Amino acid sequence: MYLYLFGSLFRGEFDQYSDIDLLLIKDKKEHYLSIDLDKYSIYNEERIEDLWKEGNPFAWHLYFESRLIFSTDKSDFIRDLGVPNNYKNLKNDLNKFYKLYIDSLHSLKESTDSRDFDLSVIFLAMRNFASCYSLGSLYQYNFSRNSAITLQKDCLKIPIDCFSILERTRILSTRGIGNNVSEIEYECVLKELDNISNWFQLINNKTSNE
């Protein structure tokens, strides 16, 4: 068994809303009945090896932003895997997160009953879309919550207060921390949806042949 720290704490972006991200890698035969599944991301060794072969963004995330904190055999499984293969699934991943964004827009137009959740999914789509673009097209890793507005090229340009509202909905949706979006805040986000849509389309156009 191997236990790794990864994510925002490793990047030095830890704040009051950050989780302590822990990855547990185990052999398929290992069973730990006392493990709190809510506290760990659990993968078996074979799945991690597959992610490395795929050049999956999560593999690159772990390669750059993880640190071993416990090992039953004193070895470092991730370091021993070496560098992940090149990331080759950029266009499919961009399409996937763009569709997630579009579906959330449609949901907002149909009803505001799940408004905060839909806004949180928009934030998730923006973040993952930007991280994939950065890794697959700019050849730079950026797995930050702020990836969309911190890209070295083609970053999303919207007011920081609007971005913070979207970020807050994600924290509320995943951790139950914070307040629901007010009508004024919702209107602020609505005014920026065209800019956000144009940003998605800009990157889709730039990567159409990748």
UniProtKB/TrEMBL annotation:
Pfam families for the chain: Polbeta (PF18765)
Domain Polymerase beta nucleotidyltransferase positions: 3-74
Annotated protein name in UniProt: Polymerase beta nucleotidyltransferase domain-containing protein
Organism per entry: termite gut metagenome
